[in-house]
């Protein structure tokens, strides 16, 4: 079935990822066009505008946040089964390698671990192979899973494109029809394209990278909230979003405003003030480098 994108009829309404996921979570697959893209730290969490995507499903995934000794902050799915890890205590391996899920079920955080073999990720150089990691926290992430396709309706890659909800800047439009087809025929065409998607065994491979920036003044509101999450202060994200606190405004917020307007506890106020001044948490072993 021809899905020439020039013949698609696009809805006038634009959605952010959260709005789209909530409205259409029970009616995938859907065809979308990215009207406003997102530039992340790596190819996996970046998306270009004008990308056409067949959204296949919504995945709710429990993830763990890690810090490497080089200051990289990463997140991996808790259920990842392709890698085993050693627990490190007093600079020595403790017991046999076990799954990440088993480590989290039996150990308080933070905990230092080593993969059986160092992780080599596409965006890291050989000198930044991940051989020692500190698990700092876990969180739940919703991900839209889809595949981009060409202007002629041909899937352009065979690995999923992942759209996490933290890409708050992204805006998308929904395809509502195709020239020459009635609604039933259009839905059949979507189902045909969706039928080409086989993501079996791929869902657990999504590894995201985030770095704590040294200069906070140029951050957007969403990026400030990302920093809060990395500091385990994500309970304040809603207040920061409500008050539209971007990086520049962050430097004008005094401690009383943090407590009275943003509802922050005194310890957390001190933590954020020190972070604003350049402090970064040292979470690894004694030889670890600070984030940033």
Structure overview:
The protein is of the alpha+beta class and 292 residues long. The chain has 8 helices and 11 strands. It has helices spanning 17-24, 100-106, 183-194, 221-230, 237-242, 247-250, 255-260, 266-277, and strands spanning 8-15, 30-36, 52-68, 73-77, 85-89, 92-98, 111-115, 133-148, 161-164, 171-178, 208-210. Strands 1, 2, 3, 4, 5, 6, 7, 8, 9, 10 and 11 form an 11-stranded antiparallel β-sheet that branches. It is globular and about 65 Å long. The N and C termini lie far apart (50 Å). Mean pLDDT is 79; it is low at 199-205 and 283-292.
Relevant terms:
292 residues; alpha+beta; 29% strand; disordered C terminus
- Strand fraction equals 25-35%
Mean pLDDT: 79
* Shape by Cα distribution: globular
Strand count, sense and closure of the main sheet? Answer: 11 strands, antiparallel
Q: Short summary of the structure?
A:
The chain is an alpha+beta fold. The chain contains eight helices and eleven strands.
Topology:
Blueprint: E1 8-15, H1 17-24, E2 30-36, E3 52-68, E4 73-77, E5 85-89, E6 92-98, H2 100-106, E7 111-115, E8 133-148, E9 161-164, E10 171-178, H3 183-194, E11 208-210, H4 221-230, H5 237-242, H6 247-250, H7 255-260, H8 266-277
Antiparallel strand pairs: 1-10, 2-3, 2-10, 3-4, 3-8, 4-11, 5-6, 5-7, 7-8, 8-9
């Amino acid at each position: 079935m021809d899905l020439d994108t020039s013949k698609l009829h696009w809805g006038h309404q634009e959605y952010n990822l959260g709005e789209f996921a909530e409205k259409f979570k029970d009616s995938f697959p859907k065809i979308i066009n990215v009207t406003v893209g997102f530039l992340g730290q790596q190819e996996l969490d970046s998306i270009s505008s004008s990308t056409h995507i067949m959204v296949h499903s919504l995945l709710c995934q429990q993830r763990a946040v890690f810090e490497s000794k080089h200051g990289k902050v990463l997140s991996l799915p808790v259920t990842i089964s392709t890698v085993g890890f050693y627990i490190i205590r007093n600079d020595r391996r403790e017991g046999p390698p076990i799954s990440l899920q088993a480590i989290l079920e039996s150990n308080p955080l933070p905990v230092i671990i080593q993969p059986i073999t160092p992780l080599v990720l596409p965006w890291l150089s050989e000198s930044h192979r991940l051989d020692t990691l500190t698990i700092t926290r876990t969180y739940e992430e919703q991900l839209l899973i889809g595949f981009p396709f060409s202007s002629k309706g041909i899937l352009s890659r065979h690995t999923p494109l992942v759209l996490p909800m933290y890409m708050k800047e992204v805006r998308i439009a929904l395809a509502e029809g195709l020239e020459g087809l009635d609604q039933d025929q259009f839905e059949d065409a979507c189902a045909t394209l969706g039928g080409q998607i086989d993501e079996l065994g791929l869902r657990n491979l999504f590894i995201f990278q985030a770095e704590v920036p040294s200069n906070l003044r140029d951050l957007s509101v969403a990026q400030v909230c990302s920093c809060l999450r990395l500091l385990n202060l994500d309970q304040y994200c809603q207040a920061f979003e409500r008050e539209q606190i971007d990086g520049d405004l962050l430097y004008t917020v005094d401690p009383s405003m943090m407590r009275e307007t943003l509802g922050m506890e005194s310890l957390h106020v001190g933590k954020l003030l020190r972070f604003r001044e350049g402090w970064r948490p040292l979470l690894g072993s004694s030889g670890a480098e600070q984030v940033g």
